[in-house]
């Protein structure tokens, strides 16, 4: 049996690699396994046979299963409701289609790779250097081998690509007060894939950040607050503490200490 042409599910489990031969007969199916010449008769639709729809070359693609990036994928076999991933030196595995995400890797495009390399070189020239001459930002750039089209970074690598937007939460809260420009800034931050808040000292940037944090936490989002100096992060932590949000303050203090 050609194991790249058929996917055989028996009682909902992928048994393709252990099947030597199958013989459909109406709603039933006879199965002969590789381990034994005995014929097993299955009725009631317990056997489901899917035919190959297409072979997908994974070169230039990012393949994730339940959010985990898969490496060393040699071939993707598309059986419609299921994918089979053929991986180097590993057992071929099958996954329901909804668990698999296949995205284009922007760094396979020469023009986008060139821009990315420019960012990397810039980081090497201007980024923070710590003990043992370690350039923090350059180190992170070196670790990046793939960039998904879904990321904010992809918008910077490809001219004309716009950041994604999402609908605002049904209800927004402003426990730290606001003015009209701050309200717009909060709404942009919660609806856009990326947003920038800019203003001179005293215009309420920290207050706006606090309102963004409050809404994100209310909607069960994870929030990380980072800065290139300790005082800015500590300022946010102190203002949260005044509102009695100690669980957030502890999280921010941990980031600040590190």
What does this protein structure show overall?
32% of the residues lie in helices and 25% in strands. It is α+β, with helices and mostly antiparallel strands. It has four domains: 1-51, no CATH class; 55-103; 110-157, no CATH class; 180-257, no CATH class. Strands 7-10-11-12 form a four-stranded antiparallel β-sheet, with no helix packed on it. A hairpin with a 5-residue loop joins strand 4 (28-33) and strand 5 (39-42). The longest helix is centred in the middle third of the chain and has 17 residues, at 110-126.
Domain module tally:
4
**Treating each run of at least 4 consecutive H or I residues as one helix, how many helices?**
7
Distance between the termini: 57 Å
Largest sheet, in brief, is: 4 strands, antiparallel
The mean pLDDT is 87
Number of strands: 15
How are the strands ordered across the major sheet? 7-10-11-12
Output the radius of gyration: 26 Å
What characteristic shape results from the CA principal axes?
A: elongated
* Poorly predicted regions: 253-258
Helix content range = 25-40%
Structural classification: alpha+beta
> Beta-strand percentage?
15-25%
The topology string of helices and strands comes to EEEEEEEEEEEEEHEEHHHHHH
Write the layout of secondary structure elements.
Elements: E1 6-10, E2 13-14, E3 19-25, E4 28-33, E5 39-42, E6 47-51, E7 54-56, E8 61-65, E9 68-69, E10 73-78, E11 82-87, E12 93-96, E13 100-104, H1 110-126, E14 129-130, E15 134-135, H2 136-143, H3 152-157, H4 180-191, H5 205-218, H6 230-242, H7 246-257
Antiparallel strand pairs: 1-2, 1-6, 3-4, 4-5, 7-10, 8-9, 8-13, 10-11, 11-12, 14-15
Helix pairs in contact: 1-2, 4-5, 5-6, 6-7
